[in-house]
Amino acid sequence: MPEGHSVHRIARQFARNFVGLPVHASSPQGRFAEGAAVLEGREMLQAMAVGKQMFLEFEGDTWLRVHLGLYGAWDFAGEILVDPTIASANGRMGQTNQRGTDLDGVILDDAGENSLTSIGAPRKTRVHVRMSEQTKGLADEDAEWPPPVVGQVRLRLLTDATCADLRGPTACALQTPDEMLATVAKLGPDPLVGDPAEGEERFVRIVRRKPTAIALLLMDQSVVSGIGNVYRAEMLFRARLNPHTPGRDVPEEVVRQLWRDWVRLLAIGVETGQMMTMDDLSPEQYRAAMASRDDRHWVYRRAGLPCRVCGTEIALEELGARKLYWCPFCQR
DNA sequence: GAACTATGCGGAA
DNA sequence: TCCGCCTAGTTCA
């Protein structure tokens, strides 16, 4: 259940390992057989993310649009080049386990080394990672190649060195360039696409016009791209903003603050692979919070627990068919 | 092994 | 507003 940061990480992984290379495409599960046949053998030209959508461009004016939805995930295997601007390379990206762990793939351990752990890679037996020369000592020479297909793989993309398996997406479809542009045009600004200052103006203009609760606006992908249920709850708490405040009643400066917070959280998320929303804690506080992976947020999934700031019980309500967590005192 | 849950979203009613 | 999609980890029996 990835929010925007995961999708950007996945796009970057494709940029490093697939772009510029011919790709074998198949649909082991069969549900994307026609599309895979179209892509088979074509060179991947570009990989980009806009909000929660990812677009892969192939030779012949053909785009692949993928939306992971609630359950989707990409599993990478084989050679996985490490983006130096990104703290970790990966096994599994997108899906996470049910304990609230929101980590993509490999993490940095205390020593600052890349280490393969099961965190965020709940089915690590399926992830045969042969790291690039930029990492060390993680060669898996005995891994079968290409990796055996396990489970429902909608789409497998394969180069000589790297394999990417897509499972459970909400959307996986081919698009013409016009269709791709039309999809993007419907999306609100993404801090990592285009000029973030322009994005801020668009965001402010829309929010300040709407009578809709700010908690709903933040989740509306036509208002702002990439925010999901976790970032929504956390951002509203960080702004100490009542989730029910109509967009047009949120002071302009607070709207701008929300956008800038999203810019910051997304950057941290893409860099670390974690939905780090408590970055302003002291190191000691942060260590304590991280000690329990189930409890690393201000309010998300903390219903009934005391607010970390004021001790009030965190509230849980349904809003727009999603669970909304907030502190009735801090966000009054 | 069944039931439950999830970071999403489109379409029917 | 509700339902269905579609996957897999976790929890509980």
UniProtKB/TrEMBL annotation:
Stretches assigned to the Formamidopyrimidine-DNA glycosylase catalytic domain: 2-100
Pfam families, sorted: Fapy_DNA_glyco (PF01149), H2TH (PF06831), zf-FPG_IleRS (PF06827)
Keyword Zinc: yes
Protein origin, superkingdom: Bacteria
E.C. designation(s): 4.2.99.18
FPG-type domain segment(s): 298-332
Major enzyme class: lyase
Keywords tagged on the record: DNA damage, DNA repair, DNA-binding, Glycosidase, Hydrolase, Lyase, Metal-binding, Multifunctional enzyme, Zinc, Zinc-finger
Needed cofactors: Zn(2+)
Homology family: Belongs to the FPG family.
The protein, known as: DNA-(apurinic or apyrimidinic site) lyase
